[in-house]
Amino acid sequence: MDKSKRIFLKSKRSFRRRLSPIQLGDRIDYRNMSLISRFISEQGKILSRRVNRLTLKQQRLITIAIKQARILSLLPFLNNDKLVKRSESTARSSGRRTIKK
Questions:
Q1: DSSP letter (8 states) at residue 38
Q2: Which of 46, 65, 70, 83 could covalently link to 30 via disulfide, CB atoms 3.0 to 4.6 Å apart?
Q3: Is the pLDDT of residue 75 over 80?
Q4: What is the rounded CA–CA span in Å between residue 77 and residue 16?
Q5: C-alpha closest to that of 76 among 34, 51, 47, 45
Q6: Contact by Cβ (8 Å): 49, 56
Q7: Rounded to whole angstroms, what are the CA distances from 98 to 87, 94, 95, 101?
Q8: Residue 17 half-sphere exposure, CB side, CA atoms within 13 Å?
Q9: Which residues make beta-bridge pairs with 101?
Q10: pTM
Q11: Would you state the pLDDT for residue 26?
């Protein structure tokens, strides 16, 4: 293969740098709830590194901060809002019927 063709093939590739959701000034700490809440799902689960677009070191620090916040009761372990609404609606419908005279 000719050198000019090899150079042309390499120039077709593009490198796209992904922007990290954590800026340089942000502290990853259990008290920083606005930062931590971005990395938790609606059900209260810690989102994966792929979804978060974090580095390995950042993901470890986020996970530790979330676990500390849960232990100190700043965050719930599970978000049961949907489960509570379901149980209330089923409890109402399964009650005894009253006979109207």
A1: G
A2: 65
A3: yes
A4: 36
A5: 45
A6: yes
A7: 21, 12, 9, 10
A8: 2
A9: none
A10: 0.61
A11: 82
Give the integer Cα–Cα distance in Å for 61 and 59.
5
Pairwise CA distance, residues 63 & 69, whole Å: 10
Query: At 59, phi and psi to the nearest 5?
Result: -65, -40
Task: Considering only the C-alpha atoms of the chain, give the largest distance between any 2 of them, rounded to a whole number of Å.
Answer: 98
Give CA 4 to chain center in angstroms.
47
- What is the rounded CA–CA span in Å between residue 52 and residue 31? 19
Q: Which residues contact 82 (CB under 8 A, 6 or more apart)?
A: none
Q: How far apart are CA 32 and CA 39, in angstroms?
A: 12
For range 34-58, the mean pLDDT: 92
Q: Which amino acid is at 57?
A: K
Report the distance separating Cα 85 and Cα 74, nearest Å. 23
Structure confidence at residue 48 as a pLDDT band (50, 70, 90): very high
